[in-house]
Fold these 2 entries.
Entry 1:
Amino acid sequence: RYEKWWLTFGIGSLVLFLVIVGISAFHQGHQPPSSVKTINYEQVDKVAPFNEPGLKKVEGKDWDYELVVVASAFMYMPTEVEIPVGSTVKIIATTKDVVHGYGVAGTNINMMLEPGYVSEYVTTMDKTGEYLVVCNEYCGTGHHTMKMMYKVV
Ligand code: CUA
């Protein structure tokens, strides 16, 4: 009698384990950890928060500012931001056309912006200076002209 009970318990645990592994694999496969699917990437600059790109102070979060960026061939909106030194910033970025890069020179920030996805990265800017943002994914004839500037003051 006891053997049968243990066998049932064992098989039950195994099935439960496989279901949990299956569910988590499914979720990870469909949603990369740092990306959130958007509705229509060509219209993404018409919906919040991408209709108002720029740096915004936020309250009650683990970061001080949110920096909303929209990339398109061949520019970033906004083109320049002033960030108070020592502040923690969540970069929230997307593209409204093709794949663009988002690399901040002098930091380890190196994001890829994909149409239909929002890429996020939290960073603390603890040194003053000017940081040039460049595109590091080839995106067309104007690729090398894509630039943005962080002024950390
Ligand atoms: Cu955008 Cu290269």
Note: The chain has one helix and eleven strands.
Entry 2:
Amino acid sequence: MIPGSELILNPDGSVYHLHLLPGQIANDIITVGDPERVAEISRRFDRVELRVAAREFVTHTGELDGRRLTVISTGIGTDNVDIVLNELDALVNIDLERREVKAELTVLNLLRLGTSGALQPDLPLGSILLSAGALSADGLMPYYGVDGVGDDFGTALSEFVTANGLRLPVDPLYFSPVLPDFLNHPAGKQLPRGVTLTAAGFYAPQGRSLRLPTRLHPELLDVLRRFDYRGLRITNIEMETAGIYGLANALGHRSASLSALLANRGAGTFSKNPAAAVDALIDLGLLLLTDRDGS
Ligand code: R1P
Ligand code: URA
């Protein structure tokens, strides 16, 4: 039995932060950082059966083209991803009344639709990228004692960075997800793929310097930009993917992260129309989730 201090429930029986009850989420779940993006997505649904808001965690569940979907905001960062993934998992895989892990586990399909900054100058602003893997520089997963999956990439990267006389302030872990089947859709197969660096913040942890210096020296971004491991490059930087991939793998869920590239860190540019880029990302995500035959 999981004690009340560990699995915290509200008086109505809902999970502590998300304020959701079992049955209120679909098996196909879109995660977004921005709470306002939730309604932008659910307004495309044919019907919405549930709207719940608690802090930065806004959840809408509904149906589109006969498929039940949930969209939930995580807010920014893997500290929030920790809460969202654990509580979503508890909703399907823990019997909340008996406080016991269920004998039969449910696999969720998690699709992040987020924004990101491109590391590589050849990646156009507004384009959409699938994270084939995530390099975690955010610090969440070591608390779970997870060593990383497909660690070859991480090892090769560490060697490359050391060989160039630089180091990341944290030792990165590499996570490659079990991708959901909906990516077999032709639109999913055509997506450019790269490795996403998940940072612990937006400014210094991504190498940005306004008034304060960053220990992620611009030279390090150049080094990361040059790294190529069996054709895989580090393509972009954001703040959730490694947490989603790491926890989804550990909990037995499938996950994919799609990023609309709003900034180009190589070229020093930012999208003139970020709303259009996010719109295109939402259209693509909903197509993948609803057109499962890929017709
Ligand atoms: C930073 O501006 C935020 O944008 C990206 C980052 O991961 C971070 O959450 O994602 P979202 O657009 O989903 O919020
Ligand atoms: N989100 C990020 O985390 N970084 C960027 O550069 C753009 C969006």
Note: The radius of gyration is 19 Å.
